[in-house]
Every structure is written in structure tokens, then in C-alpha cells.
């Protein structure tokens, strides 16, 4: 390994795309970011333009390398991490999408999900995939695109039905990792962690499930090859004649939350992390055992290294946390995210106000697709400071909902929780989280652990790092937050649960 070589990571998230370059110590040496448009065709519908995402991906890679004075040939490998469940269908010949991507937050297939539930398929889906039957996942999104995208116009022939072309293998589907890998290498590949989020993949048999593909009307010809998250054989390489001007192996991929688990070096059973991004996602490594949940969590694939067994995880998926702070900005209650901390500290309590940010329904452990955002407890004396504080508290309360379920399912005491993501820069939130969960909160020096995790996966695959012990040695604590024993949160948590109850089953006329 040369001292002047590095590993890159494409971090394609819900609101934007980042490219980061890491050295052998796990330090950031290059970083660039671009936002992309959020498209809301109808209430509850969320789309992204896949071509905009790909153009931004190329742009941030070039910008990061240029700004740091690096050459693409100095990259030993590239890893991919991505917003999960978001689904794209594209033409295998032209590489053009047949429709905008349907984002993980999109709820347009709620009626279809309820139809599947009424068919009595919920337990079968949960047993095979570890997932709840929900519009969150890729299965119904793929089905919707095939049924609703405009027919494809072919030269010198009639427009051809989208589903017909998919059955003939002329259309490909994938989550965002697959889309980025395809555009970087020309190969149609996903990893086990992303496959496990489609509701089409059997996480115990480690294969696409024919019965589920039939149930959701997804032709098997269009699904990608599934490979380890850290792949010694690599997924392919960039084109020397392409935008990078170099052949760089693409050797690792992880869904964003699994990437954060990997980046936080949660390699052992019982290790847990929570990532605070657009939503919050708490994962606990359960080792080689796929632990079924009795409390509304998801059983999912954590990661897999080449030649090794799959590592599973329990996950609590919270749809809206960081996005709730963005909502405060949209409503002009704060000027920027940093102001939320100072405003929350300026009052002693929420004065009885509770915000339930169920803008995209409620995820774990409630799983209510028809819940909607709710503010309760307001009086004439309620000020914006109370609403802002209540919004931050909602992030911590939702995490407690998940943490309690996780401890029950795994029968493991949660002694410490590693945290990452943009919101953990907020010290008020971290302390509040410690008090509400009743456990130590540990924030690492490098909080962009999602990008770091996929870089680790790619770097291990090509020998840039030899062992996971090297990665453990890289991990360093920035600050830990201990429980304030004087904090009185039990009564408040009970009232939180009352507020959640009032948000449920609201969107009945959509």
C-alpha cells in the first residue's frame, strides 16, 4: 500500500450526494456535496430524478478530487452507500430511466400494501424478508412503476408496454446503489444489505424469492445480481476513457444504515448505533443469527464480507427526524439547523407541547402508514421555542420507542449507543437522548460514518486495510454523554405515547 493512495466513497443520500476520500487512518482528505431536487407530484408522493443524481455523482467526485489536488489514479477503490429502498427502473440498452425514482418516503402504494395485508401475506413476508409489509420498501414501488410508467417508444416500432419489456429482460430495476454501480461500471449488481430492503429477497436463503417476485409482479429478469458488501472480486471498474480518466475498482456497497454500522465498527453481536439523518435508524448487530422481532422492529442483513457468513441486525426505522428540523426551517420557525439548539435551551420545557413528526407515517415500532404529523398541547402562551424544543424531543422519544423494543427482542442490555449523522452535532439533543433512553451516548470524531463504512468495505476488499482490527483502531471518541440522573422523563414519555396515539390512522381520505 502506497502512502499517497486513498479510498473513495460515494454517499448518495435522500437530499444530496457526497463524495469523500479517506486515508489509511480513516481521516477525511477530500469532500464535496451537492443537493438534488425533491419532487412532490401529489401529497404523500416523493420522487427523485435519477439522471440528476448521476450527474451530481460525477460532479462531486471530480470536485472533491480537484479541490484536494488528488488524481483518480490515487484511489485504490470506491465504495458506494445509498438511501435505501428508493427504486429506479431503467432501459438496459439506453441506460435511461423509464420514470423518476420512487423515494423510500413515498406512500403512493399504501392501498396496494393494504391489499397484500388483507390477502394474509404479512407473516410470510416477515418470515422471508424480516420486513413489515409496508410501502416503505422497494417491492410495491417497482410494481407501481411497471404499471404506471409511460410506454417506451422504440424507433420504427409501436410504443411497447413497460411490463412486457421488463419480462423480456430489456428493463432493469435496482435501488440507488445498483444505479450508481451500473453507471460507474456497466454492471447490474447490488449487495446483500440493499437486497434485503426490497421485500423481494429471502434473507435466510440469500436469494431472490420467486413467490415474492410473483406476488408483487416483478419479473426476475430485471433484478440485479446480489454480491457481498465487501467484494474481493469487485463489482467492476470505472472506464479509463470515462469521466474519471482512470480504472478504479468499485469493490464495496452498503445501504446507508448498514454502512454506518460498519463505519462505527459495530462488528460484534450486541454492538449498536443510531444514525440521525433525514430519518433515524438504530441498528444492533445480532451476529450470524437473524433474530425475529416481536416488538415491531425489522430483521435485516447488516453486511457480508467475501467468503464470510452474513451478519444480521435488528433495525428500528424512524422515518422523520432530521427532516423535522428541515420542516422547522421551511416553516420559518428557525433560520438554520444550528439555531434549534439555542432556542431549545432558552426554555426549561416544551410547556406541555408535543410534536409527532409523522409526515410520512410512523415506522418502527408502530408501523402506521396512515399516521400524520401532529402538534398537541398548545395554548395561547405557546411560542416557537416550545415547538422547536418539542421537535428535538420527538427525535429522542422516537429513538426510545425503538431502543425499548430492541432490548426486548435481543435480550441484551444497551450499555452504550454510538451515534452519527448531522443532528449529533447538537449537544442538547445528544444529552437529551442519553437522559430519555437511560444509556451513554458516544459520538465519534468522524461523524460521517456512513461514507466511512462504505470506504472501509471497499478498502478491505482490495487490501487497502488488512483486518477489521485496523478499523477498530481508527475509531475515536469525540464526546460521550452520560445520563443525568436528576432528569425526570418518565411522565413526559408517557405523554409522548399519548401524543403518538393521536397521530395514528389520520390519513383516511387520501
From TrEMBL:
Protein name according to UniProt: Glycerol kinase
Binding site for ADP: 14, 18, 278, 322, 422, 426
Residues involved in sn-glycerol 3-phosphate binding: 14, 84-85, 136, 256
Binding residues for ATP: 14-15, 278, 322, 422
Cross-referenced SUPFAM superfamilies: Actin-like ATPase domain
Domain Carbohydrate kinase FGGY N-terminal stretches: 6-263
Organism phylogeny: Archaea, Methanobacteriati, Methanobacteriota, Stenosarchaea group, Halobacteria
Annotated source species: Halohasta litchfieldiae
Boundaries of every Carbohydrate kinase FGGY C-terminal domain copy: 273-461
GO annotation terms (biological process): glycerol catabolic process; glycerol-3-phosphate metabolic process
Keyword vocabulary terms for this entry: ATP-binding, Glycerol metabolism, Kinase, Nucleotide-binding, Transferase
Amino acid at each position: 500500500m502506497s502512502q499517497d493512495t486513498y479510498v473513495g466513497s460515494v454517499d448518495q443520500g435522500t437530499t444530496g450526494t457526497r463524495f469523500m476520500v479517506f486515508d489509511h487512518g480513516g481521516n477525511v482528505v477530500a469532500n464535496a456535496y451537492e443537493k438534488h431536487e425533491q419532487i412532490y407530484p401529489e401529497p404523500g408522493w416523493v420522487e427523485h430524478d435519477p439522471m440528476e443524481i448521476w450527474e451530481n455523482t460525477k460532479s462531486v467526485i471530480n470536485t472533491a478530487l480537484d479541490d484536494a489536488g488528488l488524481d483518480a489514479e490515487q484511489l485504490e477503490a470506491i465504495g458506494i452507500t445509498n438511501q435505501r429502498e428508493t427504486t429506479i427502473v431503467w432501459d438496459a440498452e439506453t441506460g435511461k430511466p423509464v420514470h423518476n425514482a420512487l423515494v423510500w418516503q413515498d406512500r403512493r402504494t399504501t392501498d396496494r400494501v393494504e391489499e397484500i395485508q388483507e390477502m394474509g401475506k404479512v407473516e410470510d413476508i416477515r418470515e422471508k424478508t424480516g420486513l413489515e409489509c409496508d410501502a416503505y420498501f422497494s417491492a410495491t414501488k417497482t410494481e407501481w412503476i411497471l404499471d404506471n410508467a409511460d410506454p417506451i417508444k422504440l424507433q420504427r416500432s409501436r410504443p411497447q408496454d413497460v411490463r412486457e419489456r421488463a419480462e423480456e429482460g430489456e428493463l432493469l430495476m435496482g435501488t440507488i446503489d445498483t444505479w450508481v454501480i451500473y453507471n460507474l461500471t456497466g454492471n447490474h449488481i447490488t449487495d446483500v444489505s440493499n437486497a434485503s430492503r426490497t421485500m423481494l429477497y429471502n434473507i435466510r436463503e440469500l436469494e431472490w424469492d420467486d413467490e415474492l417476485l410473483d406476488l408483487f409482479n416483478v419479473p426476475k429478469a430485471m433484478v440485479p445480481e446480489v454480491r457481498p458488501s465487501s467484494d474481493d472480486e469487485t463489482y467492476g471498474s470505472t472506464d479509463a476513457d470515462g469521466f474519471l480518466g482512470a480504472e478504479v475498482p468499485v469493490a464495496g456497497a452498503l445501504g446507508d444504515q448498514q454502512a454506518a454500522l460498519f463505519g462505527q465498527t459495530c462488528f460484534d453481536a450486541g454492538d449498536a448505533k443510531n444514525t440521525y439523518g433525514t430519518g433515524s435508524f438504530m441498528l444492533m448487530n445480532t451476529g450470524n443469527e437473524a433474530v425475529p422481532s416481536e416488538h415491531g422492529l425489522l430483521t435485516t442483513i447488516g453486511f457480508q464480507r467475501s467468503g464470510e457468513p452474513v451478519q444480521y441486525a435488528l433495525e428500528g426505522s424512524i422515518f422523520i427526524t432530521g427532516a423535522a428540523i428541515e420542516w422547522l426551517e421551511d416553516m420559518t420557525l428557525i433560520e438554520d439547523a444550528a439555531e434549534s439548539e439555542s432556542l431549545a435551551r432558552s426554555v426549561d420545557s416544551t410547556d406541555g407541547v408535543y410534536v409527532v413528526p409523522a409526515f410520512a407515517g410512523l415506522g418502527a415500532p408502530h408501523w402506521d402508514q396512515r399516521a400524520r404529523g401532529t402538534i398537541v398541547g398548545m395554548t395561547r402562551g405557546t411560542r416557537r421555542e416550545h415547538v422547536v424544543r418539542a421537535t428535538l424531543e420527538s427525535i429522542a422519544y422516537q429513538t426510545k420507542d425503538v431502543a425499548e423494543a430492541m432490548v426486548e427482542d435481543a435480550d441484551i442490555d444497551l450499555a452504550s449507543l454510538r451515534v452519527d449523522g448531522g443532528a449529533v452535532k447538537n449537544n442538547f439533543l445528544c444529552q437529551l437522548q442519553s437522559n430519555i433512553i437511560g444509556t451513554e451516548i458516544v459520538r465519534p470524531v468522524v461523524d460521517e460514518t456512513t461514507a466511512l463504512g462504505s470506504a472501509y468495505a471497499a478498502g478491505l476488499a482490495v487490501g487497502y486495510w488488512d483486518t477489521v482490527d485496523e478499523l477498530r483502531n481508527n475509531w475515536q471518541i469525540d464526546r460521550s454523554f452520560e445520563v443525568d440522573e436528576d432528569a425526570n422523563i418518565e411522565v413526559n414519555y408517557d405523554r409522548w405515547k399519548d401524543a403518538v396515539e393521536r397521530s395514528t390512522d389520520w390519513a383516511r381520505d387520501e
